[in-house]
Amino acid sequence: MGIFGTIYTCYSGVCTATIGMRVTADNIANLNTTGFKGSRYEFANESVIATNEVFVKEKGLGSKIKDIRTLFTQGSINTTDVPTDLAISGKGFFIVSDKEGGIFYTRDGQFFVNEVDENHFALQNSLGLYLLGADPTAKTADLGSLKPYLIPKLMPPKGTSQINLQVIFDSRKPIEETDDPLFRNYNATRETPLENGKYDFVWSLPIYDNLGEKRVLQLYADRTVNPNEYEILVALDDPTLDGRGEGFYKGAFLYGILTFGASGDITDARFWEITNPSSFDPATQQPMDLTALGKPQFNLNIQGNTQTITLDLGFQVQPDGSITRTSYASKLLANPFVQLYYNQDGYAQGIFDKIEVITEEGLIKAWYTNGQNIDVAKIFLADFTGYEDSLMKIGSNLFLAKGGVTPFIFAPGIYERGRIISGALEGSNVDLAMEMINLIVLQRAFQSNIRGIVTADQTLEYFLNKT
């Protein structure tokens, strides 16, 4: 090889050690970079094969960089308590895109809610890339079906369609001596349609109309002439809101008679809808068919806007006429009148408040100021297991798939390849202790190769001085 060959061989060692130190320095510099995946240098010897008729021998020409490989081992999971901070435990990459539809992959889960137009927000990272997802109910997806999911700034109001109510009727109230039904005592032409003393108790039931306005229904209860019966009447607290017209029954919409058994459970129920505010008589009007409806329903008319409301008192009439009861069934007991449970499904208009929950399965929930939430989207992850070398680092914690490479898209979950942890971030997978050891070894290799160059140079100088 000669002295000049020695210089070039040691020079290759200096170059590879320098590149190794650059890789190590990059790893150390990104020790605190979210989702960073460290790199590993891989050296190989540089040589040529010389042959003759007798033997084959290898001539060493130094070293070279064989590859700089990215290590995709798991980084530490660090809690942040910010719901839109996401960490992947296990395999997978978040899929993000730019406005032009370019697809990128990352383990950096630092996302935030950003305004994208006058009506919507979206989850983006600091580069403005959208986090991609699918419909909240989707089980599978592919790259073609994933898209940025927009979060509405406003949630439209919803009129109440169901009231769930558990009340206790007081069995100690004396029965009526003469038959004096509630509906006969109701008169909307008076200042107080149903006067005190004409009923035993009243519950106020707040609801929402179709425009999101809060309204109040009154549920009146009164004993009948039978010891095991109560009659009820549902009416608006303000009869003037009734858009059906004028009459004695303006504001009244539902009348019913409940029969209770020995244990206090409802054993029979008859209900009539009051459709005409000017006239109503259960004796001449057929009760609603609860074997078909299951529960009593009535059409509420508020200033011309109608909505159908189902009143659920904790029982349901089956097609064969039998009655089944829920855990919140209303009863007749020797207790004061009381409301034990109330729920209605209406709400006012809501303004976007926050992203509070992102589940391990990637389900994103948006919460609004009206106390409601909607499922916005479901995050899907990309898996490159077995061919991670097809990913290229392009900076900013992003990877780009090489041409022709299609990842496996999967829904995260506790039993899947990877799961999502909300309120946490994945740290760098760099092992600082190992990197410092590598740095010392590379430094010694660099120094040794420099010493080899200096020694060869001195030998060459000595040779030239002697000739």
Form type: rod-shaped
Compute the CA-based radius of gyration: 39 Å
CATH superfamily of the largest domain: Flagellar hook protein FlgE
What is the averaged pLDDT score?
91
Query: What's the domain count?
Result: 3
CA-to-CA gap between the ends? 20 Å
Please summarize what this structure is.
15% of the residues lie in helices and 42% in strands.
Pick out its properties.
alpha+beta; 3 domains; 12-stranded antiparallel sheet
Explain what the structure shows.
The two termini are 20 Å apart. The chain folds into three domains: 2-73 and 430-466, no CATH class; 77-156 and 351-426, no CATH class; 162-344, Flagellar hook protein FlgE (Tick-borne Encephalitis virus Glycoprotein, domain 1, Sandwich), CATH 2.60.98.20. 15% of the residues lie in helices and 42% in strands. Strand 29 (391-395) and strand 30 (398-401) form a beta hairpin. The mean pLDDT is 91. It has helices at 2-29, 182-185, 290-293, 432-466, and strands at 39-51, 56-70, 77-79, 86-90, 93-97, 103-106, 112-117, 120-124, 130-134, 147-148, 150-152, 154-155, 162-170, 201-208, 214-223, 229-236, 252-260, 266-273, 297-302, 305-312, 315-317, 323-325, 331-333, 338-344, 350-358, 363-368, 373-379, 381-383, 391-395, 398-401, 408-410, 418-422, 424-426. With 467 residues, the protein is of the alpha+beta class. It is found in: Bacterial flagellum basal body. Residues 422-462 form the Flagellar basal-body/hook protein C-terminal domain. Residues 17-37 form the Flagellar basal body rod protein N-terminal domain.
